[in-house]
Amino acid sequence: MTLSTARRTGGTDTTNAGDRRGEVVVTDIGLDYNGVPALADTDLHVHAGEFFTLLGPSGSGKTTLLRIIAGLLDPARGTLHIDGTDVTRTPTQKRDIGFVFQNYALFPHLTVAENIEYGLKVRKMPGAKRAARVKEMVDLVALGGFGDRYPAQLSGGQQQRVALGRALAQNPRVLLLDEPLGALDRGLREELGAEVRRIQQESNTTAVYVTHDQEEAFILSDRMGVMRDGRICQLGTPEQLYREPKDLFVAKFLGKTNLFPGRITRVDGAASHVRVGEHDLVARTNPAIVGDDVVCSVRPEQLILGGAGAGSPVPAGFDRIADAIVTEVRFLGQRRSIHLDADGIACSIDLDPAAPAPVVGEHVSLLVRPGEIALVVAAPAASAEPDASA
Amino acid sequence: MTATDAPTPTTPLAINADPVIRRRIGTIAARVALLAPVVAIYVVFFVWPIVSVLLRSLSPEGKFDAAAPVIDFANYQQIFVDDFLLRIEWRTVLLAVNSTLLTVLLAFPTAYFISRLSKRTAGILLLLILVPFWVSIVVRLFAVTSILSPNGIVNQLSLALGLGETSLLYTQAGTLVGTVMYLLPYMVLVLYAGMTSVDDNLVLAARTLGASSVRTFFTVYLPMVRGSIVSGALLVFILGLSFFLVPAILGGPQEQTISVYIQQQIDVYQWGIASAMGILLLIATIICYIAVVKVAGSFQPGGVGPAQAKGVSTSLPFRWSPWMAVSATVTVITIGFLVVPVLFVFPLAVGETGTVVFPPRGFTLRWFGEVFTSQVWLGPIWQSIIVALGTAVLSVGMALILARVTSRMTSTLGKAVIGGLAFAPIVTPAILLAIGIFDVELKLGLTGTTIGLIFAHTIIAAPLSYALIASAMSSADRGIEAAAWTLGASRARAFWTIVVRGIMPSVVGAFAIAFVTSWDEVVLALFIQTGPTKTLPVTIYKYLESGIVPTVPAVASLLVLVVVVIVVVRGVTNRATDRRGAARNQAQPPARQEKP
Question: Please, which domain of life does this record's source organism belong to (chain B) (predicted)?
Fold first, then answer.
């Protein structure tokens, strides 16, 4: 199955990961809502101690998968193992997980300390030990002095910390987070995102994190999976997904990109020769591609400008991919964004703001390093994921 | 999904069944087990009584024989032919129509005036309407009887002014006065809710378009509140149509209405005509309620939402005008009409004479002492407390189960059906419910028992508890229960420690409203209590029928005092919680609902 992530297993051996726990293995899990599959039969292997993110637009099935792992939804098919034990039919209560809800779901009638204490009380932890653990958690989530407040007396960011502390208090094997930062404003989101990551590392748990915000995913994840229409399109490290998108959807969903239709002329091992317009280029081979029609995905920061016309010089190490006319120049602080029209294809590139800026109407050519072009299938075909029928 | 190796399964279907489906069946079974007692109580003490009366109404002798069932519409025919019965029906309809008209005429200016006042003043005036509303109708009836009686204040005033004898007791006018007094608070509260929800900007917009105040009132304001007027009037009409207490006490023997006639017939075990009339009342009520739903779009139990002073907005400030002056005058009349009878019980209670007279002669607190020392009153007080507590516990239990099941339901139709069925008992005319439950409890040997009365009161109290708890549960965050599960709490533990504790104010409110409903209930208690010890309101009612003793005003004043104390305490605690900020979500004050 091409979805499984054999690529990254080189670094750590996951089978005997010491005191790390919380390995989640999802096998052929599927669920239908009124006959429509909300989750196609999905496989996923989250390693112990890993911070794994499920990224996708709303309705892509990422929350469904998370809730199935939590036991809040029953899958129609498939099995789920946590640390090697089959928990497919185990009720939520017995799965030893922590769940952070999108709206936090704090108990409004209990104080911060009582919220955090709840799971410990359920587990009948003795009073003194319980109090110590609550204090420890309150400190961990940086809420010292707020223990006696009610949730309604806290700000959104503080509520989020309580939710995190409550989920972690009983030291769960797996921490499941359902868009926990979605309701916060931008600055707070970044700050708390880093904190979620720190707390996860310190508490030594596996985290499965659901979000539609790619920046969050990039900041937090060891690995991530992009979901769409109830299936996982691609798995990998954030960098892998950004640099080597497997299909058009992943390429467009993660960051901005410029898409140039082309045609494969020759495949030469890891290098594919592509013809884009009248230019011949070399790109990395994408094994998922079956036909000849492809799209070249080039990120705005990977392009530079060169002189117009076939005769103008091309810097060493660059290839010309298209000719274009500058339509808009914007100064954006850290970068200068240039919008261009490349024979009907709208493109944008990011330049160093210190570099000389082109003027609107100028004829230029777009240059790219050969290795940075990612090839994806022309149409966002559903056949991007070959079925594991063997 | 391995499709290649799929030989036909040889295992039996049951073992092979999808575990998910098996678990679904499990939850359905648990749901049924929870619901069974609720459904049983509902069927035995609501469905069976109605069906029983219906069957009796179809037999000429008023006796249904399961061995030889007959369907005969003779009783119904009689209702529409017999002169005597027609006169009773005409009188009933006339009373309902007149009291509705009078109520609307008084309530509209009152509600309008209050809706134009600042929040603080409006709150005080609403309180003056709510306190009488919360005082038991029997207590208020007692006061009205004293006021209207030949040696009462009205007649004395009329004699002193040289207007001759004015005795309203046992006349149509007296009945009308009593009925309007009962219906007024409902109408004012419905109208006030409707008026405060009108967007002031609409009125301002009409003015900017050049419309005069009068034109604005008729073309913009009135259409906006027409829904509240119509649904409030229909509601009041329904209550007036099957009203029993006021006609029974103030109407006297010549002024029977349908309800009073039914009661008299059942007293002598003549079921045929009485049953048919009860069913007729039910049909009329259902028609009116359908009209209410059509007009208002939805049905609120009792038609009275939480009465909270809103206060007029600064964009449309209060301004005196001739219309406003008229409204203010009507408001004074309305409030005086409601408050005076309630206050009137106090002077009556302190007179030294052995007969109750106004103004009181001398001053003594002896009668209060007597209330707390004689078994005549301690028995009923104790009985009332036990029945009310039992009713409250049972109602809250049923409401929790029902609310829990409906909050988990996904089908809107299912929710609507359960909601409709749950509210059916409080829509049913009290007199019909009373004779039906009486009939059934006679067969079960429950009449005269405390538990029999608790079941009967639960039937009318549980819907109100359910309304409070269901709305709190549906507005509470559903996620918190799942959150408790993920923390390891069992389903039962999560339900009690999170769901129920989280809506505790509403649960307490549901308990209180069930308690009060039972505490004040007269009609069901009148029929079902065949034993010597009756509940407090029924005891007072019996004295109203037979003649007042001096301890009655003392008891009445104590009951008024209890209401005043509760209202004051509520006001203080509410203000305290307001000051503490909206840190904890607080329950709305429960609407008062009474079944006379």
Answer: Bacteria
As a whole number of angstroms, the distance between CA B379 and CA B361 comes to 29
Q: Is B583 in Cβ contact with A152 (below 8 Å)?
A: yes
> Which of residues A243, A273, A292 is at a domain's end?
A243
Q: Quick check: B504 and A109 CB within 8 A?
A: yes
Lowest mean pLDDT among B126-135, B239-248, B251-260: B251-260
A248-280 pLDDT, tens digit each: 899 888 888 999 998 888 888 888 888 888 888
Q: How many separate helices (H) and strands (E) can be counted in chain B? A: 28, 0
Nearest CA-CA distance, residue B6 and chain A, Å:
14
pLDDT at B20: 55
The backbone torsions φ and ψ at residue B580, rounded to the nearest 5 degrees and listed phi first, read: -65, -5
Among the partner residues B20, B480, B487, nearest to A170 by beta-carbon distance: B487
How do beta strands A258-268 and A97-100 pair? unpaired
Residues A209 and A67 in one domain: yes
B376 touches chain A (CB under 8 A): no
Tell whether ipTM is more than 0.85.
no
Pairwise CA distance, residues B569 & B556, whole Å: 20
Phi and psi for A329 in degrees, rounded to 5? -125, 125
Please, which residues have CB within 8 angstroms of residue B65's CB and are 6 or more apart in sequence? B59
Give the full edge-to-edge strand order of the sheet including A77-82: A36-46, A24-33, A77-82, A85-86
Does a structural domain hold residue A176? yes
The domain boundary residue, chosen from A208, A243, A278: A243
Interface contact B3, partner A, CB < 8 A: yes
The answer to whether A72 and A66 have CB atoms below 8 angstroms apart is no
- Give A79-109 pLDDT, tens digit per residue: 999 998 999 988 888 888 999 988 888 998 8
3-state helix, strand, coil in chain A (%, to 5): 25, 35, 40
How many independent structural domains does chain A possess?
2
**Is B7 inside a domain boundary?**
no
Check if the beta carbon of residue A231 is closer than 8 Å to that of residue A242. Answer: no
Q: How far apart are CA B342 and CA B557, in angstroms?
A: 8
The strand pairing partners of A295, in sequence order, are: A261, A376
Q: Contact B587/B509 with Cβ under 8 angstroms? A: yes
Peptide bond into B359 cis (omega under 30): yes
Q: Is B27 on the interface with A (CB under 8 A)?
A: no
Return all residues near A135 (Cβ < 8 A) that are at least 6 apart. Answer: none
User: Cβ A103–B477 below 8 Å, yes or no?
Assistant: yes
Give the whole-angstrom CA distance, residue B284 versus residue B475: 34
Judge contact between A252 and A23, C-beta under 8 A.
no
Are β-strands A345-351 and A319-331 bridged in parallel, bridged antiparallel, or unpaired? unpaired
Q: Rounded to a whole number, what is the largest CA-CA distance in chain B? A: 107
DSSP string covering B265-304: HHHTT-HHHHHHHHHHHHHHHHHHHHHHHHHHSS--GGG-
CB-CB contact of B259 with B95 (8 Å) = no
Rounded CA-CA distance B168/B149 in Å is 7
CB A166 within 8 A of CB A138: no
Closest to A62 measured CA to CA, from A280, A257, A276, A210: A210
- Of A327, A282, A322, the C-alpha closest to A306 is A322
Task: Indicate if A69 and A195 belong to the same structural domain.
Answer: yes
Whether B479 has its CB under 8 Å from any CB of chain A: the answer is yes
Please indicate, yes or no, whether residues A150 and A202 belong to a single structural domain of this protein.
Answer: yes
Q: How many residues does chain A have?
A: 390
Q: What string of H, E and C letters represents the secondary structure of B119-165?
A: HHHHHHHHHHHHHHHHCCHHHHHHHHHHHHCCCCHHHHHHHHCCCCC
A6, part of any domain: no
| Position B508 pLDDT exceeds 50 | yes
Is there a contact between B302 and B108 (Cβ–Cβ < 8 Å)? no
